Amino acid sequence: MFATQKYASQSLSAVLAGQTLTEALSELWKAMPDLRPQQRGAIQDLSYGTLRHFGLLDNTLKLLLNKPVHEPALKALLLVCLYQLQFTRAAPYSVVDHAVKVASHTGSGQGKGLVNAILRNFLRRRDTILNEARHNDYGKWSHPQWWVNAMREAWPAQWESILNAGNQHPPLTLRVNRHRSNVEQYMALLAEAGLEASVTGKDAIRLRYPVGVDRLPGFFDGLVSVQDLGAQYAAQLLDVQDGMRVLDACSAPGGKTGHLLETATLDLTAVDSDAQRLTRVGDNLQRLGLSAKLVRGDASRPKEWWDGTPFDRVLADVPCSASGVARRHPDIKWLRRPEDIVQFAQQQAVMLDALWGLVAPGGKLLYATCSIFPAENKDQAAAFAARNADAQRLPVNVGTADDGQLLPNPEHDGFYYALFQKAR
Ligand SMILES: C[S@@+](CC[C@H](N)C(=O)[O-])C[C@H]1O[C@@H](n2cnc3c(N)ncnc32)[C@H](O)[C@@H]1O
């Protein structure tokens, strides 16, 4: 537990200093190649869990302290340990004993006594302290106040369930590769492997208990991919047919590219501005036995990479706040700032306008985000339609009351889709 607490605190400190958790963990794996897979898993669980419940834990710590802790590493250690004590089954005495040892190797090494006192005080007064810690929105919902306010305003009837969903463990959904299998056959393979699951969409199966991909039958032979149900609507909505020329303009890591190619035989160009991420599109397609033309390019500057032949279908799965998938990346809640949403919306508008010029007459463009902020979604789509008289908005049936908006729930993440057809 010593190493787990130490390295989880280190990655939490990195996030609190502005790094993403993915970056922090990947630097840690590089620096500590001898960590065993189980240790990595435990470090990951503690880092994710602490960030998921960060508001509550931070309020709790403030109530336990007489004065603020100035050493970031010590503060991170205390937060990780409070998470362990409140949300895991780790034995409390063991959590405290190890934390004291980690504290003696942390920062100035002076924090041993403080860590011991704070954690023992928490164990003695847990219920009272937690009740008090939940008194404001920050502690109650473990989201920043500006985010809570934005949800209240945008979703007066659903904001509580949205915030609650944002703090849960995400579902693990698979997409069966139609070229190689189908949901019935794959359900039988899962049953043989002793994995409980249910069919939740045309190509979608949700596992009752998440497992690593190495336990999924035929994963490395391309039988299935891991993809949220919400993301699986893209290929369906874009209505691709054999022989079409298709552009996936922000394609990496290739989740939707793969689904489009599993749905029909296409002449598909997959663009992404990030060369490293683009290689993942190639790797994913190779695993699935599919292929596309991969182009490193900026979707808002198509002149730099487009050959001038229009596309029948364009998928614009644009960079966004990722607020609909915060439960998969809980660091997002703490790294985003309100002004980021404005910047994303501006960047998305530029991309949309640029990509519209590539759509053939009668062709379709599907705008997609994994956001739940209206500025990136319905407001963006309405502004685009108002700017482009040749864009006809088509209905998007994803089974929700709000056209095209999926809110995070136990079945799927938060996504948004708007579909436009170009006048002939
Ligand atoms: C939401 S992700 C795409 C997810 C992908 N469609 C999938 O289903 O796996 C957005 C992608 O846009 C890329 N991106 C960001 N800015 C871009 C730009 N100006 N042009 C093209 N791609 C961009 C990012 O590198 C990222 O891979």
From TrEMBL:
Protein name: 16S rRNA (cytosine(967)-C(5))-methyltransferase
Gene3D superfamilies: Helix hairpin bin (1.10.287.730), NusB-like (1.10.940.10), Sun protein, domain 3 (3.30.70.1170), Vaccinia Virus protein VP39 (3.40.50.150)
GO biological process entries: regulation of DNA-templated transcription
Subcellular localization(s) per the UniProt record: Cytoplasm
Domain of life: Bacteria
Keywords noted in UniProt: Cytoplasm, Methyltransferase, RNA-binding, rRNA processing, S-adenosyl-L-methionine, Transferase
Chief place of localization: cytoplasm
Residues of the active site: 370
